[in-house]
Specification:
heterodimer, A: alpha/beta, 4-stranded antiparallel β-sheet, globular, B: flat
């Protein structure tokens, strides 16, 4: 594949960062003023140049954990470090791609992509515009650079958002269920696209999902989170070879990995369901799967 | 020839053949322009009722000058300098009051929405003053401002001000968190956040405030001119009533309506220019 046009060529993953979450706890108060524990003594590492996927029962605190890494919220205890330095607030070194698109509706696709370099004032505007244009061209959005986000399809919006993050050459890419709400076909195409992009750039990525197939297809390392409050239940190394292809989803190794992850998830979901009634979706999906076997 | 409408209604094929081409042509035409036809019938009925209200003895309407007289009166009025001066004066007052409402209302609204201190300082006083109808301010405005002109502009300003303020506060305080977060992550300073996120995200609400505010401005200018001024369309309307020039009253009413319509259309145009990312409303 060709070298990145948006950044000086570099060894894959070399300029990328490493996130270490150590003994992090986050709590908040619910509407009645009762304390809620969202993340409890959670530790894991997202290693340089690896694709780390966080998966867990719904409502387990995945998004809270991502907000913590992005710096939108602070930890009550414990720490988040980027390359050994404490994370203090949001920054362009850790860029987030959101659940529903957060492309600014009032800016054209080009203006959206140019936004990061523009506010940081690192280059002249003509340089930034040329770079953003080239990046959009590469992302297959060349014809849409002067369109507003609402004129783009869901898949195009996600690609635009990826471009808006990657033009800044972030050390870590944070993706919080970025493909939620896309139709099945587009979702699969986006997974394939993201895999290609990652294999080419090797930017450290932390990706949150509740879809097991998506998780294994994308991941180098699968961090299975417990029921709320989020702790790490297990870490599964996904040793499927790269480059990834969808055909690997029918391999024996894939099936074994999926079984292992599903068993862990099921145990957490069942326990959560017994405790609070949450996580019923995963439990139901699991039972349906086994009924079919 | 099979017509579009009859195909849509899907009658048996021979039914279409039986209709004469002319009859089916008219039918198609009526079907296609149903909305226009119904609207035109209502309008014609209204004008007929108005014109012949006196011979027919329709209560209420028979007290009003018939359309033919109004047309004659409008000819006289439209060729007089008085009328155009009145239009000009009213338009100037609208422009001044409306512009002031934007210039003062939008920044205060943005400040109240983005700064808690500003909100808690200003909210109680706005809640006390806001429910008072602007018309009720006319006597105070006359006493307070040195000239009648200023009083009139002040009333127009008040009419637009509250709606502009409320819309700005509403728009700026309901901006989606993910936009702000994305902007912060990408390296925005406080100024960038305001200039590129808060301001454009609030713009659609500001435009809504402008459109509604323009309507209220015309209401206010007419009321204020009737009471506190000796020029303008509102004054001319009241004066026509006082000298018992019934047809001229109607002409003034229509002129005010047209002026309001034109200014609303202008504001909508400005609004589309300010929010080009939004679809046509």
């Amino acid at each position: 594949m060709e070298a990145r046009t948006c950044a000086p060529a570099r060894t894959p993953g070399a300029g990328s960062g490493e996130i270490a979450v150590s003994h992090a706890s986050v709590g908040m108060y619910d509407r009645d003023g009762k304390p809620l524990r969202l993340v409890e003594d959670c530790s894991f590492r997202a290693e340089r140049g690896l694709f780390t996927v966080l998966i867990g029962p719904s409502g387990c605190g995945k998004t809270t954990l991502m907000n913590l890494i992005a710096g939108y919220i602070g930890a009550d205890r414990g720490a988040v470090k980027l390359d050994g330095v404490d994370v203090k607030g949001p920054g362009w070194d850790r860029l987030m791609v959101f659940q529903e698109t957060a492309l600014f509706p009032w800016m054209t696709t080009l203006e959206n992509v140019a936004y990061g370099p523009m506010v940081r004032g690192i280059k002249t505007m003509p340089q930034i515009r040329a770079e953003a244009g080239a990046l959009l061209e590469r992302f297959g959005l060349g014809e849409f650079k002067n369109r507003y986000p609402r004129e783009l399809s869901g898949g195009m919006q996600r690609r635009g958002e990826l471009a808006r993050a990657l033009i800044n050459d972030p050390l870590v890419l944070l993706m919080d269920e970025p493909f939620r709400g896309l139709d099945a076909m587009t979702r699969q195409l986006m997974q394939e696209y993201l895999t290609h992009l990652f294999e080419e750039t090797r930017t450290t990525t932390i990706f949150v999902t509740s879809e097991i197939d998506e998780a294994i297809f994308l991941a180098d390392r699968l961090v299975v989170l417990s029921r709320a409050p989020a702790r790490v239940a297990a870490v599964i190394e996904v040793d499927l070879p790269r480059p990834r292809r969808f055909e690997q989803l029918s391999s024996a190794r894939y099936a074994a990995l999926k079984e292992e992850a599903l068993n862990l998830l099921y145990a957490e979901a069942a326990a959560a369901f017994a405790e609070t009634g949450a996580g019923a979706d995963i439990k139901e999906a699991f039972e349906k799967r086994h009924a079919a076997d | 020839m099979k017509s579009l409408a009859s195909t849509a209604a899907a009658p048996p094929a021979n039914a279409v053949e039986r209709g004469t081409p002319l009859a089916s042509g008219i039918k198609t035409h009526l079907n296609r322009h149903f909305d226009l036809v119904v609207g035109a019938i209502t309008l014609i009925a209204f004008f007929l009722a108005w014109q012949f209200a006196r011979p027919l003895g329709i209560p209420g309407l028979s007290a009003v000058e018939p359309p033919t007289r109004v047309v004659a009166a409008s000819w006289d009025l439209l060729s007089s300098a008085t009328f155009w001066t009145a239009c000009y004066k009213s338009a100037l007052r609208i422009l001044a009051g409306f512009a002031l409402a934007q210039i003062i209302g939008v920044p205060i609204g943005l400040m109240m929405a983005t700064n808690r201190m500003a909100f808690h300082t200003l909210f109680p006083i706005t809640e006390i003053l806001r429910p008072i109808p602007p018309v009720a301010w006319i006597p105070v405005a006359i006493i307070f401002w040195p000239t009648r002109e200023m009083s009139t502009v002040f009333i127009v300003f008040l009419g637009a001000f509250w709606i502009v303020l409320l819309n700005t506060i509403g728009g700026a305080s309901t901006i989606e968190e993910s936009y702000k977060r994305a902007a912060l992550s990408l390296g925005s300073s406080r100024w960038h956040l305001f200039r590129y996120i808060v301001l454009p995200a609030t713009m659609p609400s500001i435009v809504t405030g402008m459109v509604v505010g323009m309507g209220i401005s015309w209401e206010m200018v007419v009321a204020a001119e009737m009471i506190a001024s000796d020029t303008g369309l509102g004054y001319l309307l009241w004066q026509s009533f006082e000298i018992n020039a019934g047809a001229q009253v109607i002409v003034c009413m229509l002129a005010i309506g047209i002026a309001g319509f034109v200014s609303s259309a202008l504001i909508s145009r400005v609004g589309r220019l300010l929010t080009p990312w939004q679809g046509r409303r």
